[in-house]
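User: Predict the structure for this protein chain, please.
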Amino acid sequence: MVKECKKCSQEYEITESDLAFLEQISPIFAGKRLDVPGSSYCPACRHQNRLLFRNERVFYNRKCDLTGKNIVSTYSPDKPFKVYDQDVWWEDDWDGMDYGRDFDFSRTFTEQFKDLYRDVPHMSLYTINCENSYYTNYALGQKNCYLIFGAGDNEDCMMCKYIAYSKDVVDGLAIYSCEFCYEGVASDQCYGCRFFVNSRNCSECTMVKDCSACKNCIACFGLRGKQYCINNKQYSRVDYEKFAKDYEYLDHDKIDFLRGKLDKLEKDLPHIASHVYASENCSGDGIYNSKNTFESFDAKECEDCRYIHNSPRCFMVQDCVYCAPDGVRFGYNVCSTVGLERAMSVFYVWYGSDIYYSIECHNCHNLFGCAGLKSKQYCIFNKQYSKAEYGELVPRIIEYMRKTGEWGEYLAYELSPFAYNETVANEYFPLTKEKCLSSGLTWKDQEESVKSDGDDVYVCEVTGRSFKIIDREKEFYKKMKVPIPKKHPDLRHLDRLKLRGGIKLIDRKCDKCKKTIRTNILNLDFKVYCEECYLEEIY
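Assistant: Here is the predicted structure, written as structure tokens:
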């Protein structure tokens, strides 16, 4: 079935497997399946809609509305919401059930839920079990971390996004199980590496890309199991160490020189179509130990999934983003969600089951249209019902939402508490202020206000924005033997996103065997090989 996207007008396909998935995840009440229809939006627009709810890195100073304490929050002081410090939010001094209300069948779900969402207190930053890691967001189990976003179980890490099980890593993106590393992107199990991309099991390497099981390599591309290589040329240990001594301490000129060498190799040598490891029947990039997972990026240990982004351990899930570290089972259209089973159209809901159209609810079961609940079940719009009452009312609401066109779609954008340029959507789908406002989205002009607090303040050489370098950050650079960055952390993050590669897949021909391949390498000047041809080339 081919449809036209309601938002961008592009054609997209709803396949038989999509319809089978929707049938399988449709909720059942009193033995009757309440079918979920195919979305009216294309996969890219659905992805953008979910990201509109996630502000990771735009922080503001404000007061906790319960204690009056000065706090840092993703909600600016002018937002029409009550915001509680995250520690206070988790306590029992308030109850989201106090905001319960009846469902009104004369108003749309979105109109009613907007009122509820504005009344319920919100968490200042989305963290849990974090020690000495106040300036982090969407983070679980952090220790001594700073400016970490979308992370699980890290220690002594700074300025990273989507990082897990790592220690002493700075300026990273999509990093797993790495230690003492700097400027890494989409890499796994590396140690002592600097400026590395799409590399695995590497150590003591500088400026490498698409390398695996390599050690002591500089400015190399596409190597496997090599040691003492410079610019993809093999050297003896003695000769390597002579050269490496000149690059033990890096300055910006040396970094630019090595990057130029790597760029030349990238243009001349073949690229693998996708980075898919130990997986079966998968398409996308950054996929590990997965099966039947398609059109997905940064997915680990997933099965029977489609349109997955930054979400490990998912099973039978479609349209899912930032659901780490524990993933989702039988889910559809979910964002920033952990450990759920049977869920649809939710944002920031951790651990539970059978939850629909809800936000900021944790350790709950059987919720519909709820916000800010903890350890509750059988609730609709934050109001308690018996199991029988819940089973009777929810189907009525679903049928009503089907008539209003809301059932099966993600939460409406007007429910998001953030301006477009505050959210992750602007990183992957950038818009100008003018385009944003003309499209009916909101925009918030940012005011620069950086206080040194005893730390050194620098000015970004590109944007002119001020940024701090804290003491332990300087200590790391000294140990790693790299210079202090010249760019603002936000700009460095955007540079890493470009190195990560896009989130759009295209069909192109293998430049060796001419077989059709699926890849996110859009640069037609690069030689791209299918996996079979690539492995023949490098081994």
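Residues 387-404 form the longest helix (18 residues).
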